[in-house]
# Entry
Amino acid sequence: MRNDLFASIDMGTNSFKLLIVQANPSGRFLPLLNLKEPSILGRGSSSSSSSIISDQSRLLSLHSLKKFNEVIRTHHVPIHHTRCVATASVRAAENQIQFVESVKETVGLEVEVLSGEQEARLAYLGVLQFLPLFEKLVLNVDIGGGSTEFVIGKRGEIAFSCSLKLGHVTLTQKFGDHGENGTEKVLKMREYIRMVIKESGLSQKVKESGFEISVGSSGTIRAIEKAIFCGYAGEFVDKEVLFRECKKEWRFTKEDLRKVVDRLCSGEKREKIRRNGFFKRRSESIVAGAVLLEEIFELLGIEEMDVSGYGLGVGVISETLAKVFDGYNFNANARWCSVMQLATRFDENKRMSTAVLCAGIARDIFEGLRTCDEPVDNDFRLAVPLDHKDLEYLEAACLLHNVGLFLGEKGYHKQSYSIIMNGNHLCGYSAEEVKFMALLTRYHRKKFPKIDHGSFMEFQEKVKQKFEILSAIIRISIALQRIGCTNHEDLEFSHSAEGFKLVFSVLSFLEKKGKKNHLSECDKHSRTFCCQEYLRKLILMLRSIIEEEKEAGNIGLSILHI
# Structure
């Protein structure tokens, strides 16, 4: 089992989500895996305060949860590091107890049915891991499929929380999609939202408590922010323009929101086609979500809103971390937050997953390499010691190495360097640290630089030596990730008088992959040859560089045997 791995399952109204992260007491999160399965728990639940989870919904839910549980076992996440929570639809279900028992008996997962207030609190804790707002009085809004949660908190403590039965799915069911008589439906929806909020007393309570900053933490709000960022209200903005004018903050104003809502509610046939193309599966309920958010802005006096890439799922894991690590602080690692924000801003989900896998492999190699600092019979050590900050630079470079693909494949490593250096995105790092990470992304491919190159003149000799080691690690990590290595068990580490040895058995790896994907013997041997050739080319290049440095007495590193 991996004691640094944690998992959460969020059983939402519109989808089930699995999150697996690698985390440590410092508060540095590395989201290793995000999976989402469509859910129909919220269907037909808008007509009353309670509902029944149908047999069809139950069976589909069990199927999704079985898949998630298998993934959790495959990743060796300890059972006491795993939590499964359910929200509005299960909370309101008349057969809630039977459903929860069915999950326990069939899948083996204990389901925690969260109250609205608990859900609101956990969403706030998730926000604190993405945005450095620990010292701020924060109003967090989380729009779900079946309910919307509100919380006001500071320093991880809750001053006020509230859950209202206003969700983008249930509102869409109640008032229909934005088709025929769309304008009339939207007006009725607005009236209903205002009535529910006013009757709850939410506006008065928020006014009495006050807040310094408002944050949105749900998928609906993130989708609206993305639409604003991409210029959805007008004509879509060219990627070159987005790159040049990129906002550092994930933030939008009341006026930005109004323009998107107006566009979504225009009622034109071509707008529905455009909406479906941009919002995809979320398009059927995005009008309700956007209208709901606009009414929340108006009734709660919100002028602008920051957006968090993390929400309930990370909040659940944060609470688990507080139980596992003594003295764990919910205060976000602000430096690391800025890395995650930049990576998430420019990387699509698939590219982000690739970058995360690369970072995981790099971490394993780094930790294996650090064993060279542990005395053995020959007392061999690296010429320059590596510390926790070097690991942070390495992981950051892995997460950011392909952000330049946002502008296309040609020379993307140079674009990645430019984005990091010129955008003032990485807060809390010194100028030298930013440049160091940017150079790691710049030289993760193509020609390896000479250390006497002008780019390295400002660095001390020790830092230059570290760069060579970390650059070798990131190149190997990317190569291993590309051929499908996703598990640290596929790697073996050792060191001796000759140096450090990393062994990756391509054939053993493909044997396991072949069983899973039913590869024929011919396919396995063909892929083995391709993998070996790919790695050999990389190794020859790295070996020539590192042997030169060894002869000069700079590095004690031997790479690598297959």
In short: The two ends are 26 Å apart (CA to CA).
